[in-house]
Structures are given as C-alpha cells and as structure tokens.
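ok posting inputs for the 1,3-dihydroxyacetonephosphate job
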Amino acid sequence: MRKKIVAGNWKMNKTLQEGVALAKDLNAALTADKPVCDVVICTPFIHLASVNNEIDKSIIGLGAENCADKVSGAYTGEVSAAMVKSTGADYVILGHSERRAYYGETAAILKEKVNLALANDLKVIFCIGEVLEEREAGKQNEVVKEQLEGSLFELSAEQLSNVVLAYEPVWAIGTGKTATSEQAEDMHAFIRGVIAEKFGAAVAEETSILYGGSCKPSNAKELFSKPNVDGGLIGGAALEVADFKGIIDAWKN
Ligand code: 13P
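and the output
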C-alpha cells in the first residue's frame, strides 16, 4: 500500500527561532495525538539542523525545499544534496513552481537535482502543475506529462520508489482557490497512468501523489477522500500547528 503523506512547505517564512518553536510545538502536538499518515516538514536550509534536534523522527520527517544541481565546489550561495543530508534531513522538495517561475529552473536542471538528491539518499518530493492559462486552454495534462518526462523518465523503477509526486496547480497556490476534489482526482489518475505507462503498473500503484494548493483543514478530508489523492503538500496552513494538524487529522475517521 502506498504511503499517505502530509508534508509542509514552509517556503521563505520563519526566523530560525520561530521555526524551531513551530517544530517543537508540532512535535508536542503529534506526540500527544499520533498521526495515522506520514508527516514531513520542509524548512529553509538554515533551520534544518536545529529542527532535526527538536523532532521525533519516528513521527515527523524532515526535508529541504531545494538543493543544488552541482555536487560541490565554487557555487557561491548554493547548498548541495550532501549538505542537506548531513543535517539529518531525509527529503527534498524539487521542481516547485516558485523555483521554476522565479529562479529559472528548467526540466534539465531539475533532472540533475533529482539525480543528486537520490544519489545522496534523499527522498524527492517532485512538484508538477500547470498555470491558469494552460488549464484554460485545456493543456494541463500535456504540461504535467512533459514535466514528468523532462526530469524523471531516465530514472530506474527503483529510483522512482524514492520519489513522491506533488500535483500543485499554480493557480491554486496561495490563492485560496483550491482545485475541486474532482479536478485533483482527474489529474492524479492521469499522472498515475503516465507513471504506469513508463515504469509499470506496480510502480505506479506504489507512488504517492500529493495535492498542493490552498489545502486547509476545511477541504483536506474531501480532497483526501479521492482514491488517487495520497495526501497534501501544504504551504500557508503548515505555518500554524492547529491548521497543519487539522489537515493531518483529515486522514482520521
Ligand atoms: P499554499 O498551501 O499556501 O497554497 O501553498 C501550496 C504550496 O505551494 C506547497 O508547496
């Protein structure tokens, strides 16, 4: 059975002290009331080592929001996959639409990042999703398929088992405009079909596909009720313990 996962993406929020306090509070809340899904928090690089010391890793996984497309060396300001791993992190988000749009991350660059992350024993949360104009033109499936092909199709089936996919329609991110559960289900089923075609049905069945984009405690249960939605990648609502826990608890009856 594939994993149910709720992952938080803190983006560029929280000072070190605020982030450590949030992780501590979340850890206390989830220790007192254990989740029935996997929980991951993805934080800015500077928080990773400190947050790693505050969380029970059997309850909360830790991840970065990015890593470099190079191994090491003269790349001022970059953080390598090996550095991320050395903090205690087990995951890295790659291909987020904000990285693609604001930092020029292409499918080819992302392919390098994915390869380096996997080589350094990090699990990858790989984001895909269309912008509004692409959805309005009915091109969302084509766009998402190209994103998968461009960065993941040279992986082996074994490597792909360490990749979690996150469908994040760009028009739903931070806008309060969630995809309907039917839109999410349609796309997730399509994505699973693309993975099945390339890597085989058994691999596709085991691949967790998360939904991201204005996911909140009030809509998480409905989204997670769909057969191909295996959890969420949460932005704004991951910054408050009550909201994030509300989404985690959507997996409970
Ligand atoms: P919001 O939940 O704030 O819409 O962000 C989603 C997201 O981009 C997670 O990676």
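notes: The longest strand covers residues 38-43. The mean pLDDT is 97.
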